[in-house]
Amino acid sequence: MSTPRFFKKEELEAILRAVVKHDTIRCKITRKMHDEGKSFDGETPLKYEPIAPLVWLLTLTGMRPGEALHLKWEDVDFQHKTLHVCPDPVSGWRPKTRQERFVPFYDSPALERILKILKLRAGQ
């Protein structure tokens, strides 16, 4: 088994800059949309879903992307400050290790704030 490689500070900063750039890209209202009378209430729609919260979650926990994408709000325990990574019986997805585990976030106040904000935005 190979030894994990950690990002250097400059590499991590470059990734986070790219994420912020990605999240600020917006579609331009085309002439065709304008001619068809489509309105966006004065706002240009997002071209992509924001990925910054996902990248922060992956960076601050070391979780695999599949693990993070299968999290549900009931898997987030703010009292014990853990994330429950477990199989998803609906989709049939299972963690690579095939075992459930708990990922702590008690040592990351930034991640706790991000999760609380996301939960509020989700109306949970």
Q: What is the radius of gyration? A: 18 Å
Number of helices: 5
Spans with pLDDT under 50 lasting ≥5 residues? none
Question: How many strand elements?
Answer: 3
Report the structural category: mainly alpha
Shape: globular
Report the mean per-residue pLDDT as an integer.
84
Instruction: Please indicate the percent range of residues in DSSP E strands (runs of 2 or more).
Output: 5-15%
User: What is the distance, rounded to the nearest whole angstrom, between the alpha carbons of the first and last residues?
Assistant: 41 Å
Q: What is the N-to-C succession of helices and strands?
A: HHHHEEEH
Q: Give a short account of the largest sheet.
A: 3 strands, antiparallel
Question: Share of helix among residues?
Answer: 25-40%
Spatial sequence of strands, sheet with the most strands: 1-2-3
Task: Describe the oligomeric state of these chains in a short phrase.
Answer: single chain
